[in-house]
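=== RUN LOG ===
request id: a7f3
mode: sequence -> structure
chains: 1
length: 416
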Amino acid sequence: MRSFGVILCRGGGPVWLGLAVVLVAGCGFGDLSGDPGTDAEDADAMDAEDADAMDAENASGADAENADDAGFDTPLADDSDLGLGQDEGPDAVPQPTRDATAEDGAELEPVPLTPCDPGRCWLDAPALGGRCGTSSIDEDYSSERYNVHRYPLAVPAEVSLEVHLRPSAGDWSPALVVQTIDGVTIYDGERADGDAPGVELERLSAGRDGGPASLGLRSVEEAQLHLFVTSWEVVGGGFEPAMPADVEYTLSVVADCPLPEATCPLDPARITRFGSGFFRAGESSDPASPDYNPYKRDDRTSHSGYDIYADRGTQVVATQAGNIIAASPADVGDCGRSVNLAADSGVTFRYCHLDRVLVAEGRVQPGTPIGLCGQSGNAHAPHVHFVYLDVPDERGSGAGDVRSPAVNQYVDRLCQ
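=== RESULT ===
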C-alpha cells in the first residue's frame, strides 16, 4: 500500500500532516500564474477582429496548461494553502496502516464485549490463579441456567500464566474472554489489547475449530481480572444463544513459578476473619487466667482445628504436596463435605464444611484446588474447619483421628 500525505503550507515550508487523502495547492513549487507574456504575444499575432476572442481563449488555455505543470490554487476557509509535493521522495513520511486481514491480529483492537448483558452469567465460579503450579477445575452447563461462566482470575506480579480451556463433552467451540474488573475487554478470544496497562496477553489458540482455547498472560504488578468461559456460538449470537446442557470442560491455569513447600489453605486476601484455633477443655479465653489460650475465641468446651472464614464459594487449596486419601462429597456428620490430604511431609490435613468437593483420590501440589468454602455439616457460617493430624498421643473423638495444636502456628505462619 502506497503512503500518501497532505502538505500544509504556512510561511515558506511544507509540513506533513499524514492524512490518507492528497490535496494539492501552491507551496512555492513553481510559477502558478503561467507565462505573463503569453497572452500579449498571442494577441499581437491575431487579426483585429479575432483578438478579443483569442485573448480570452488563450488566457484560459495557458492558465490550464501551466496549472497542469505546477499545480492549482484553491482558497481554503482559513486562508491557508494546500499543495502537492513529491509523491515519493526523501522527505516523504510513510504513515502506519492497519491491515484488517492480519492473521495474527496483533495490531487489531479487541472487540468490546458484554458477556453478562444479555448473557446469563454464573457469577459464583471459584477464583483461579494467584498461585504457582497448575490449578484445574472441571465444570459443565448441565443446569441450563447459564451460557457464560465468569471466573475471578488473579495474575501474580512478574509471573507468566497460561490459561487452557479444554472441551471434554458436547459439540461446541470453546471461547475465552478477559476483562478488567471494570468491564473493559482486553481479550476478545482472538485479539488482545496491546495497550492494556501493565498486562501482556497473547493468543495461543482461539478454539474456533472445537479444540482447546488458550492464552498467555503476564503482569508487571499483581492484577485482578475476570475470565469468561463460553462458546463461539454464544459469542457470535450476541450472548443470547443457550449453551447445550451436555457441554463439559476442564479449565486450567498454569503459573510458571517455583512451587512453595506449603501454602495457606485459602487465598489470604479472601479470608474475612479467623475464628477459634485449637484449644483444649479447661483452657480460657481470659488473658488474666493461668489457663489462657488466645486461640479460644468462643464459648465451646474444646476445639480440634482452626476455623478460617471466607465467602461461600471461595476456592480451597491443597496446603502441601501429597495425595488425597478421602473425599466426601455428601453433606453428612459434623464435618459435612470434606477432604483428607496425606502430605509428603507426613502430616495429614482435613478440610471440613466444604460447599463443594473438587477432587477425588489422587496426587495434588500446593495450591491445587480441592474444594469450595461452605457451610455444610455443623457450621453456622461459611468457613473451613482446618485440622492438622499428626500427634499419636493426642487422639480426638473421631475414629482414631489425631488432632494437633500445631495447626495454630501453621495457619498463622502461612495465612497472616
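=== NOTES ===
The first strand starts at residue 7 and ends at 10.
Residues 276 and 298 are 7 Å apart (CA to CA).
=== END ===
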